[in-house]
Amino acid sequence: MTYATDILEHHRAGKLRILASSGPKRLETLPDVPTFAELGYSGMDRSSWMGLFAPKGTPRPIVDSLNRAIAAAASTAKLQDALKTLGLSAATSTPDQLRQAIRDELAIWAPVVKESGYSAD
């Protein structure tokens, strides 16, 4: 997988052309690059994401406290600006939304991994 941040300067310098991005909307750092959906390719709206995980059994009040602290940090101008320079943005969710996002990703990628024949053994 290639991230826009890996090739952003080459694109800006005209050394290569990024044809499309796979996110649901255009990247703020690459407003001239259309999404696959805009080009007529459906089902390509995948974005990378990260999550913070706690050990199983972590009490819910602690999970909720961590979630609030992360959301507060993610909303600061300092973090938003730092991420923007990398072509990234911060989006937060609840623990339940993260759990559902993982289920959604597994539903999409488990068949792909199975069909590839990949084994972690």
From TrEMBL:
Transmembrane segments: none annotated. Gene3D superfamilies: Bordetella uptake gene, domain 1 (3.40.190.150), Periplasmic binding protein-like II (3.40.190.10). It holds the Pfam family TctC. Signal peptide: none annotated. It comes from the Bacteria. InterPro entries: BUG, Bug_dom1. Keywords: Receptor. Belongs to the UPF0065 (bug) family. PANTHER family: BLR1237 PROTEIN, TRICARBOXYLATE-BINDING PROTEIN. This is Tripartite tricarboxylate transporter family receptor. It comes from Pigmentiphaga humi.
